[in-house]
Amino acid sequence: MKDKKVSGSKVELAQVMMPEHSNVAGNVHGGYILKLVDQASAIVAARHTHLNCVTASLDRMDFISPVYIGNLVFAKASINYTGKTSMEIGVRIEAECLRTGTHTHVGSAYLTFVALDENDKPTEIPQIIPETEEEKRRYEDAKGKREIRLQQTKKHRHVQQPCIVRPEKLK
């Protein structure tokens, strides 16, 4: 399995926020922003591994600025760290007012994804090659966060449910 550069899987999604994305106050739903965060990070995970990858966790997401209808929202995602079967992906959300051109940092989040094999079991993934100083800093930061996450998740390990029917089995 060949190691890969961080730049090989980066992604930037952009979407104009429409009325159907809003809450009663006229702002974009935080849940819709979280959906964009998950979509962008899932694309990065898939590009890096070329496997089915699932969201294992989302570190906290603080909304530091509102997003309004008509804003162009960017989800900028890149891989920060790889373990044996999991990876941390960082996502930065920005909003651009298309009338003024003003860019606003909306929030950032870190997600952990796990790559699965054809039997839905965790499988080994390529390691990353951090090249820039920023990529190296993010790698070291993520390594520290991973240790904290592992200690916290030991408290609540997942037990596989025996009666899950996969969609392809229904055909």
Describe the structure.
The chain is an alpha+beta fold and 171 residues long. The protein has a single domain (4-170), classed as Hotdog Thioesterase (Thiol Ester Dehydrase, Chain A, Roll), CATH 3.10.129. Helices cover 24% and strands 31% of the residues. It is built from two helices and seven strands. The protein has helices spanning 30-49, 133-153; strands at residues 4-5, 11-16, 52-58, 72-82, 86-96, 103-116, 128-129. The chain starts with a strand and ends in an 18-residue tail after the last helix. The model has no long low-confidence stretch (mean pLDDT 90).
Name the poorly predicted regions.
none
Radius of gyration computed on alpha carbons? 18 Å
Shape: globular
Widest β-sheet, arrangement of strands: 2-4-5-6-3
Per DSSP E runs of 2 or more residues, the count of β-strands stands at: 7
Name of the CATH homologous superfamily: Hotdog Thioesterase
What about the largest sheet? 5 strands, antiparallel
- Helix percent band: 10-25%
Proportion of strand residues: 25-35%
The CATH architecture can be given as: Roll
Order of helices and strands: EEHEEEEEH
Number of domains: 1
**Class inferred from helices and paired strands:** alpha+beta
Q: Topology of this protein?
A:
Blueprint: E1 4-5, E2 11-16, H1 30-49, E3 52-58, E4 72-82, E5 86-96, E6 103-116, E7 128-129, H2 133-153
